[in-house]
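Board notes (copied after class):
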Amino acid sequence: MNRIILCIILFLSVCHIQTFGQVIDSESYHNNIEAAIGIQGTPNSREGVDMRLDLSYGYFFYNGIGFRTGLTYTPEMLGFGQAIGAPISFAWRTYRLDRSYSPDTIDYDEYNPNYMLHQDYAGYVKEQVASGLLRLLTRIASNIEVDAGVTPGYLWGKRADSFYMTGDLGLRASWRISRFNLTINPAMHYILTDKVNMGDFDLSINSWDKWQLSLVFGVSVLL
């Protein structure tokens, strides 16, 4: 147990040092490829909870807005069989806000004694506090990202032979080490498909089982 605690402390220390000192080049690293592993299933029972494998590609513009796509595989989904999907999502990440922040500077060439008396210090202080909190957040996690989209997929195996689709909403946090990111991605999925083809008949999915939760851990490389 002590070794595990020591490893966790060392891991967090390395992440903190790397993220604290990093400088993000706004003209580099628009792309990233990520491989991840975790679990997905219904929150009310262990039935249908199984491993989840992800392989994704993301592209981001200068303003932090981008998109993700890729493949996801689950060996057992709701007891129906294997599932493979192709998630497509829009994404927004926060560190672009931090590096784009540039407070207005005072033009000292036009300074006059009354200039400082008429400045909106309350607004300036609010901007500084907001910027400081954002910098603190992005140092803790070098990239906070929100994803929203859909996953069209296919179910097959011991019971099912059917297409399906889910609506997805996720949050991704990553710790940057050189050109690599260590990521954690909790997400919520809602199965938009009402029925699954079971061969001889269609089986309705109950409303509770339509809600799925996932938690995956991954490694991505910045390109």
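Comment from the instructor: Residues 4-12, 14-24, 97-109 have pLDDT under 50 and may be disordered. The radius of gyration is 23 Å.
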